[in-house]
Amino acid sequence: MELLTLKQINYFKSKLVRNDNGCEIFTGCINRRGYGKLCFCIRNTKTYILAHRLAMFLHTGLNPKKLHVLHKPLICHNKACCNKEHLYFGTQKHNRADMKLDGTILSGEKNPSAKLTLEKVAEIRILLADNENSAEIAAAYDISRRQIDRIKNNENWKI
Questions:
Q1: Please, which residues have CB within 8 angstroms of residue 66's CB and are 6 or more apart in sequence?
Q2: Which of 5, 51, 63, 100 has CA atoms 20 to 30 A from the CA of 69?
Q3: Has this prediction a pTM greater than 0.85?
Q4: What pLDDT does 158 receive?
Q5: How far apart are CA 157 and CA 122, in angstroms?
Q6: Helices in 103-143 by DSSP H: which ranges?
Q7: 38, 83 contact by CB (below 8 A)
Q8: What is the mean pLDDT of residues 30-36?
Q9: Residue 98: alpha-carbon gap to chain centroid
C-alpha cells in the first residue's frame, strides 16, 4: 500500500459516504463477505485491497501483516464501514471475541456449514447417555468422533 498514488487515495475517499450512525460506508465494490474491495495497479501488478484496511493504513501509516483490521464491537456492525474511529488492529482471537460479544458469530444451526441441528444434538446426547459407541454415533450422523467428544464434553453445542 506504500505506493498508492494521490489519485488512487482520492478515488477511495470519493467512495465514502457517512451514514446516521457515523459509519463511513464504502460505496464501491463489495466482496461476497460484505467488505469493501479496491483494485489498484501497483508496480504493474493488479492488487486487491480491503477498503477498511486501506482506511487504517491512511490513518496510522501502518500495515501490520499479522494483524487484522477489526470493527469495534457494539459500535459498528457494518463491514463496509471505513471510519477510522470504528476500526482497530487486532488478532483473530480478538475478532472471534468481538463477534461473540456482538452476537454475529455463526455458531450452531446459524453456521451454514453445520451438519447438525439442535434436535440431532439432543438425539446424540441421549445416545451418549445410553452408553452407545461414539464411533458408531459419529458414523450415523456423518460427523467426526472428535465432534462427538466435543458434544459429550459440552465444548460445542453447549447446553
A1: 91
A2: 5
A3: no
A4: 75
A5: 10
A6: 118-129, 134-141
A7: no
A8: 95
A9: 10
In whole angstroms, give the CA distance from residue 117 to residue 74.
28
pLDDT at 159: 67
pLDDT on residue 87:
96
CA 10, CA 8: separation in Å to the nearest integer? 5
User: Based on the domain organization, do 100 and 113 belong to the same domain?
Assistant: no
Pair (19, 51) in one structural domain = yes
* pLDDT, tens only, 102-124: 877 777 887 888 899 999 999 99
- What's the pLDDT at 44? 86
Domain interval for residue 146: 109-152
